[in-house]
Amino acid sequence: MQAGTDIKIARLTSPEAMRAAARLMSSSDPWLRLGINYADCLKSIRTPYRELHGTLRSGELKGLVLITMYGTLRGYIQALCVSPGCRGEGVGKALLLYAEKRIFRESPNVFLCVSSFNSGAIRFYRRLGYKRAGLLKDFVISGSDEILMRKTRGPLRGPAPRGIKRKQ
Ligand SMILES: CC(C)(COP(=O)(O)OP(=O)(O)OC[C@H]1O[C@@H](n2cnc3c(N)ncnc32)[C@H](O)[C@@H]1OP(=O)(O)O)[C@@H](O)C(=O)NCCC(=O)NCCS
Q1: Would you state the pLDDT for residue 5?
Q2: Pocket (CB within 6 angstroms of ligand 1)
Q3: Assigned superfamily of 10-110
Q4: How many angstroms does the Cα of residue 130 sit away from the middle of ligand 1?
Q5: pTM (2 decimals)?
């Protein structure tokens, strides 16, 4: 699938791709700083109802997005990571727009969490239309919060049934 001008993104299902994704995540912040190691990342990638999508360059994984399409926060971006040498080239934006397109086919919300220390990623998400939806204090490690962000196209269901007052 084509997402940017020359960035091809596709669903990745092979065990090698999953291991490459776990290597990429576990060798980068925020996962390093949060103490989330290779085994943790691989387990997270292999979780049922999660979809790994990514982009390759010269056979190497250059960026990935991991999506959960299940549960109350259906349309949750579990991870987004671009290889350090490829950052600032539009790969992250292409992956995020691709993930949004995939999620909005089935749900009106895209959710994600970003660590409070990850100021660059917070700016990145804000620029792409994400709004703060909540704060999970000391969620993964003590001294760092997770900011829940959302981009929405509207409520899960249509207008409230007759007799039920909508919030003012
Ligand atoms: C955050 C991340 C995914 C961004 O990917 P990227 O490929 O470097 O970003 P892009 O080149 O696509 O940038 C897209 C836009 O965001 C802006 N942007 C990117 N990183 C930014 C930063 N650190 N601060 C401010 N703006 C930033 C770019 O200027 C660009 O703006 P434009 O569209 O107006 O030109 C990447 O830096 C990364 O993998 N970081 C490590 C993992 C991480 O923190 N993931 C997110 C938390 S789960």
Answers
A1: 56
A2: 28, 30, 79-82, 87-93, 114, 118, 120-121, 123-124, 127
A3: Gcn5-related N-acetyltransferase (GNAT) (3.40.630.30)
A4: 13
A5: 0.92
